[in-house]
C-alpha cells in the first residue's frame, strides 16, 4: 500500500461512520471487561492507529502497543508517537502471559487458520486477560466486498464461538451488531449478485450528510448493546478470556 492510499484510509478511520461507532463500541466493552489493565494492552491489526490512540487515552498507566503487518502503516503510527511493531497475529512479539487486554478488530477473517491466530493470542494473554474481537457476520452476505478485502469467511455466532473455544479461550459475551443497517446491506448484496457487479478495494468518504445519518443510525445500537445481546446484524463482537490457572 502506498502512502497516499494509506493517508486516505487514515482519514476514513478517523471520521467514517463505521470506524467511529465500532471504536465507541469496543472502548465501552474494554472499559467494562478490563477496567484496570496494569500490564500490556495490544491492538492486533491496528492499521493507521485510530483505535490505538483511543486506547492510549483510556489506559494511561498501561503499556499500549499496536501490532500491524503493513510497514508503511507502522511508520505512520510511529510518527505520531505510538508504539507499534511490524508483526502478524500468527506470530506476536509479546512474552507469554504479558497482556491484560488484546483487541483484534476485523482481523481473523483474513487468517486462513483463525484458530491458530486465536491460540497465539491466548499464549500472550495473562490468566483472566481479555480479548475483544469483531468479525463480519452472516455467510449469506458474502459478496465481492469480501473477496476484494481478502476475507476467508464470514461468521455465524456458532462458528465464531467454536473457533474461540478451540483456541483454548473462554467466551464471556457475544453479540451481533450493525443490525439497523442490515436491510440496506442485504439489499446491496442482492443487487450486486443480480447484476454481477464487481467491487474494488477503493477508499472513499461518503458525503458529510450521508456519513452523519449513517453514524446516527448505527449509533442507536450502542445503548441497546449496553444491556442486550442483539440476535442479528452484519457483524459480531465477542469478548473472550484466558482461563485462570487451576490451583493444585
Could you explain the architecture of this structure?
With 248 residues, the protein is of the alpha/beta class. The protein has one domain (3-241): Rossmann fold. Helices cover 42% and strands 19% of the residues. It contains 10 helices and 7 strands. The protein has helices at 3-15, 17-33, 50-58, 71-79, 114-124, 144-148, 157-166, 182-195, 208-219, 221-225; strands at residues 40-44, 63-68, 84-86, 99-105, 125-136, 170-177, 235-241. A 7-stranded mixed β-sheet has the order 3-2-1-4-5-7-6, sandwiched between helices. The chain is globular and about 55 Å long. The model has no long low-confidence stretch (mean pLDDT 91).
Number of domains: 1
- At the fourth level of CATH, the homologous superfamily is Vaccinia Virus protein VP39
The global form is globular
Helix content: 40-55%
CATH architecture classification name? 3-Layer(aba) Sandwich
Quantity of strands, as a count = 7
Please write the CATH class name: Alpha Beta
- Assembly state here? single chain
Unreliable stretches: none
DSSP summary: helix tally: 10
Percent of sequence in beta strands = 15-25%
Broad structural category: alpha/beta
Q: Quote the CATH topology.
A: Rossmann fold
Q: Between the first and last Cα atoms, what is the distance in angstroms?
A: 51 Å
Overall pLDDT, averaged?
Answer: 91
Task: Identify the strand order in the major beta sheet.
Answer: 3-2-1-4-5-7-6
The sequence of SSEs as H and E is: HHEHEHEEHEHHEHHHE
> Largest sheet, if any?
7 strands, mixed
- CA gyration radius, whole angstroms: 18 Å
